[in-house]
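Write out a record, fold above all:
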Amino acid sequence: MEKKKLLLDCDEVICFSGFLEAVNEFMWTNYVIDDFTDYYIDEAVIPPERMAEFNKFLNGRNMYENAHILPGAIEKIKRLSEEYDIYILSSCVNPFDIKGSGRMFADKYNFLIENLPFIKPGNFIFTSAKHLFKADVKIDDRLPNFEGDEVEVKILFPSYHNKDITDEELATAGVVRAGYDWRTGWDNVLEILLSLNDNRDESLSRRSL
């Protein structure tokens, strides 16, 4: 039987990159990820007049060299790879450093092949146009990334910036929330997908009677 297709985001779903560490180093601060509710950490911390200086500070820095892999991510993704054909769908373009964004492609690619060796590198899709891709399941941490999708199951991975999304917004978008805490997000994702598979198998068994 052909495997179902699963589109999986990388940043804030598989790992936290070293971006917050870079912000803390630049600003001499000690923020942790849960201090934030807005997606754009740099805009929340760095004064606008220092943003250009910060972007120069980032120049040449590998954000994935010491990335923090989210709890259970690798084990759960490997478990799901037994039932799904997994594609990594992730953006690599820094709008503040278009010319230098090529380094991010390479750094993220190397991070993925090192930590997810059971996923074929040909299944890495680096793009911001996530709405163009069809699949059976999609997992992402940003609600706008589900817009326009032809996807059967949409799962919002919990992160620091999406806790305030209402149940009404999720219902309108046809998205299921995998809890509220990124520490247990992968446990919830696996539970959701295994439950859906069990229900689907039960339905098929009833039809065959």
Q: What stands out?
A: The chain has seven helices and eight strands.
